[in-house]
Amino acid sequence: MKAAVYYDIGDIRYEELEKPEIGFGEVLVKMKSCGLCGTDVHKVLHKTVKPPVVLGHEVAGEIVEVGKDVKKFNIGDRVFFAHHVPCFTCEYCRKGHYTLCSHFRETNIYPGGFSEYIRVPIDNVKHTMHKIPENMSFQETSMVEPLACCLYGVNKLNVRYGDSVLIMGAGQVGILFCQLMKFLGASKVIVSDISTYKLSKAKEAGSDEVIDVSQEDLIEGIKKITKGKGIDTAIIATSISSLLKDSVKCIARGGQILVFSPFDINSTVAINSKRFFNDEISIFGSYSSSPFDYDIAIKLISEKRIDVNKMITHKIKLNELQKAIDITTDTKQNSLKIIIEP
Predict the structure, then answer these.
(1) Strands, E, within 94-200: which ranges?
(2) What is the DSSP secondary-structure string of 82-96?
(3) At what angle do helices 218-225 and 242-250 cross, to 10 degrees?
(4) Which one, 116, 181, 232, 305, has least CB within 10 Å?
(5) Domains of the chain by range and CATH?
(6) pLDDT by residue (tens digit) across 156-187?
(7) What are the phi and psi torsion angles at 89 (to 5°)?
(8) CA-CA distance, 189 to 163, in Å (whole number)?
């Protein structure tokens, strides 16, 4: 089979690999669509993974082989599946912190989504695999995993009907959060970014206001929009550590902040600690998704409550993965979500 194998920065090779053999309870899936995630791009650009490796995890495909004792799925089924799965029994899982489970990071699909065929291990089949509705395309299904990640983050928050929400970053995650907040009844959703194109996509997704931070001061903009009150909820959807300090300045008394995107491991941010006591603000972190978010994400997309089609700007073949990386990292290119196809 063919796969796009990462060897080094700027060195992704489209080459032949042995097609995986499946074992007891496992499933072999033919990849039909795989989203290019920001974490994939980060790994490629900063070489945070040990090469050679096949990346990709936002996968949709069709089952071509089923192992012994697989009862819920059959050859020909159109499916979604996740790459990580928790143990459900450790102290973290018992508290609902599924992504902190050590088993979560140890589990994975093989060899990765950017390949023609993928072996899905037994735990992933049992706990994360779902048949996708007939009215849902493979491309739409590639958006299930990122939407599930957003749902996992939203579940940490207390977003009430009529709240105001600031989403910092108008990338694919920011646009998903924008739609989610509107769906949950936020009265005013504000999206900030430096990209005119991405801010236009935010407006298309239902944002009530946008702030181009290359032209306008964010804190002053929020004060103007909220008449000095501040924002109820801020979501940091881009990996810029200084936004944490800005978000603390933007939120109202009793407000909450979700740190969704990862910061540089060496970054240090000074924030006004008095606000925790005087104003009872809250800051939450969120990483990845749980197995309990996937069926909800599928339902939201299949029922068009969340429109992911307008987010997909490019469809690129597997043998041109490096081209996809180049497009998404080029600020002159108008790209939002890139889907890789066989």
Answers:
(1) 117-120, 130-131, 164-168, 188-193
(2) -S----SSSHHHHTT
(3) 20
(4) 305
(5) 2-147+289-341 (3.90.180.10), 157-285 (3.40.50.720)
(6) 999 999 999 999 999 999 999 999 999 999 99
(7) -125, -15
(8) 9
